[in-house]
Amino acid sequence: MLHALLSAACSFKLPALDLKLPSPSLAEDGRFGGGGYATALRVCADVLSSPNDSGGWRELGTLLHGKGRLDASAMALRRATQIEPLDSEAHVALAEVWLTEVASEEECEWVIATAEEHNAAKGGWACRQPRFAPEGTVANAVRAPDMLVADEPRLLAWLNEKCDHTILPALEAQFGIPARELWLYDTFLLKLGVHVDDDGFGLSFNVLLSDPADFEGGGTRFPPNAFSSEEAVYTPRRGQMLSHYGGLRHASVPCTGGLRYIMVGFVRAERLVELRLEDAAYGARTGER
């Protein structure tokens, strides 16, 4: 059976990944029955025998990633998400960043004005963190003015409407997790120059509220990662939401002039918490970090 499956690969889907499959004669050789070679044979056979099983493609993508075949790995993982849009593990493994239009210029102006009105009535913006200190800051020496969206009823009502009609549906499409399983557990406005956030247990998003002409610098920087050997910097348009898996390493690009207002939110899903805990347990067993 394995001989036939591997032979069929020449005319099936795996050549699109530019894979050099093991020869059928070696596949049937008892000397190659263990270790990583046997795993590769099994994974290829699983994909060939069940091409519509997202789990097989996800496992193939993970295997290729471990071998440094990043392009082929991404193709296999995307195939998993095409077959099963709710395969959240494959979506997370792809570690993609999305930009989605969620607010008009007029809405952004209103959010900023409402936030300023709210904080002026309180005597000024708060600086609560430590979480918004620039990367590398010693003893949290720099703090960014911020406010919880939930503290202003009008902003909270606006955000809830956006979550129902735009934000959560966009995250569902990006990460394959039904919107009904997602919950927003923290959202705040920042009036800042630079910040770093890293939540490894959920999804992160930020919405640019300011006109880019009102500040210099800014954006979100993603260092090289599993699927990209180059650094990427995203500079959303006004009203765009930038969203990504919280465990994806990222940092703010410093704002070198003017004021930049953004809305930052963190979203939880039980399956992502479980996935992260499984990863942590695996790392503890193997010594990996």
Features:
6-stranded antiparallel sheet, 2 domains, 3-stranded antiparallel sheet, Fe2OG dioxygenase domain-containing protein, alpha+beta, TPR-like_helical_dom_sf, Jelly Rolls
Task: Tell me about this structure.
- It comes from Emiliania huxleyi (strain CCMP1516).
- InterPro entries: TPR-like_helical_dom_sf.
- This is Fe2OG dioxygenase domain-containing protein.
- The chain is of the alpha+beta class and 289 residues long.
- The chain has 2 domains: 2-84, no CATH class; 98-286, Jelly Rolls, CATH 2.60.120.
- The protein is built from 9 helices and 11 strands.
- It has helices spanning 2-8, 24-27, 35-49, 54-66, 70-83, 88-94, 105-122, 153-175, 270-286, and strands at residues 98-101, 146-148, 182-192, 203-208, 215-217, 220-222, 232-234, 240-245, 251-252, 255-258, 260-269.
- The strands form 3 sheets. A 6-stranded antiparallel beta sheet has the order 1-8-4-11-3-2.
- Helix 5 (70-83) runs antiparallel to helix 6 (88-94).
- The protein is elongated and about 65 Å long.
- It starts with a helix and ends with a helix.
- Mean pLDDT is 75; it is low at 1-13, 21-35, 130-135, 137-142, 193-199 and 280-289.
The main pleated sheet reads as: 6 strands, antiparallel
CATH architecture of the largest domain: Sandwich
CATH class of the largest domain, named: Mainly Beta
Number of helices: 9
CATH superfamily of the largest domain: q2cbj1_9rhob like domain
Radius of gyration: 23 Å
What percent strand?
15-25%
Order of helical and strand elements: HHHHHHEHEHEEEEEEEEEH
Low-pLDDT runs of 5+ residues are: 1-13, 21-35, 130-135, 137-142, 193-199, 280-289
For the biggest β-sheet, the strand order reads: 1-8-4-11-3-2
Our count of domains comes out at: 2
Task: Identify the overall geometry.
Answer: elongated
In the CATH hierarchy, the third-tier topology of the largest domain is known as Jelly Rolls
- The rounded distance between the terminal residues' Cα atoms is 39 Å
SS class: alpha+beta
Helix content percent band: 40-55%
Mean pLDDT: 75
Number of strands: 11
